[in-house]
Specification:
The chain is mainly α. Helix content is 71%, strand content 0%. The protein contains 11 helices and no strands.
Length: 280
C-alpha cells in the first residue's frame, strides 16, 4: 500500500514538476516545500501512534538517536545485515533517476521538461500497477524470497535495457521490466521485519531510512560524475547510458547477494529469538 502511494506520487509529482517547471523553474520547489510542510503538520497533529504501549522503549537512548546509532540494529543478525546491504544497493541504484535523468533524457532523446515529467508519470503508473495489483498475489503465491529475486532480476534487465536504449521508443520498451523492480521492496521489508521483535520495528525503519539517506548523498555524486565522464567533449564515442550500466551492475550484484543471503530457506523461518535483546 505504501509502495502504491509512492507510485501515485511518482505520477503526480513529475507531471506537476514538468508543467510548473515549464512556466518557472522555481515553482516545483515551492510546491515541494508546501507538500513537505503539510506532511510534517499532518504527522504532528493528526497521525496517531501505531506502536502499542507495551512495545515502546522504556528508556530513551541518545546513542541510538542518530543515523549512525540506528544502524547498530542491522548488525544484530547475519541475514539482517545481508538484507540491509541489498537495501543499500537498491536505494543507491534508484538515485540514478533523480540525479541525471532530466539531463540524460534531454541529451539522448531531446526531451523537454514537460516530456520528461510525463515520461516519469508513466513510469509511476507502471509502478502503481505492480505495487497495487501484483505484489500481494505474487508474495502470497510464491513467497517473499521469490518476489524479492524476481523484482531484482526484472529491475536489472530493465535498467540495463535503459543503458542501451538509443531511442525514446526503446526506452519505453524497457519500462515494464524496470517497473517490476517494485516487487522487491515489500518483500525485502517483510523479510527484514520478521528478523526483529515488535519493539524493534521502529528502530528498523530508522536504520533503513539512514541507509536511504546515505545513498541519497552518494548517488548524485557517483552518477553525475559517471555521466559527465561518459559524454565529455573529448570522448571519441560518447556513452550516455554509462550511469544506467552502473546502476544495472549494482542491481545484478544485489540479485546475487539476495540469492545468497536468502538461500536454503525463507527468512520468515528465522526465529526472532536470534536477534539482539530489545534493550540494545
Amino acid at each position: 500500500m505504501l509502495g502504491a502511494a509512492f507510485g501515485l506520487g511518482f505520477i503526480l509529482g513529475p507531471a506537476l514538476g514538468g508543467i510548473l517547471g515549464s512556466i518557472d523553474l522555481r515553482l516545483p520547489f515551492f510546491l515541494a516545500a508546501a507538500c513537505a510542510l503539510a506532511n510534517a503538520l499532518y504527522g504532528l497533529f493528526v497521525l496517531p501512534e501505531s506502536l502499542a504501549v507495551e512495545n515502546r522503549t522504556k528508556v530513551f537512548n541518545w546513542r541510538r538517536a542518530n543515523p549512525v546509532g540506528a544502524l547498530i540494529l542491522l548488525r544484530s543478525h547475519a541475514r539482517l545485515t545481508g538484507l540491509a546491504a541489498i537495501h543499500f544497493c537498491m536505494t543507491l541504484m534508484h538515485n540514478v533517476f533523480p540525479s541525471i535523468f532530466v539531463l540524460y533524457a534531454g541529451y539522448r532523446y531531446g526531451w523537454s521538461e514537460m516530456q520528461v515529467g510525463l515520461v516519469l508519470a508513466g513510469v509511476g503508473a507502471c509502478n502503481i500497477i505492480v505495487m497495487g495489483g501484483l505484489v500481494k498475489p505474487v508474495v502470497k503465491r510464491f513467497g517473499e524470497r521469490t518476489a524479492l529475486l524476481a523484482g531484482l532480476f526484472s529491475g536489472a534487465v530493465g535498467v540495463t535495457l535503459y543503458a542501451f536504449a538509443d531511442t525514446g521508443l526503446m526506452f519505453w520498451f524497457a519500462v515494464p521490466f524496470a517497473a517490476l523492480t517494485s516487487l522487491h521492496a515489500p518483500a525485502l521489508q517483510g523479510l527484514m521485519t520478521k528478523l526483529v521483535s515488535p519493539a524493534q520495528q521502529g528502530a528498523l525503519q530508522g536504520a533503513t531510512s539512514s541507509i536511504t539517506g546515505v545513498t541519497g548523498m552518494l548517488g548524485p555524486i557517483i552518477f553525475t560524475q559517471v555521466f559527465a565522464f561518459a559524454i565529455a567533449p573529448e570522448r571519441v564515442t560518447p556513452i550516455p547510458g554509462a550511469p544506467f550500466l552502473l546502476a544495472g551492475a549494482i542491481l545484478w550484484f544485489a540479485l546475487g547477494l539476495a540469492a545468497w543471503v536468502t538461500r536454503g530457506r525463507e527468512v520468515v523461518a528465522e526465529s526472532i529469538a536470534e536477534t539482539v535483546p530489545e534493550t540494545l
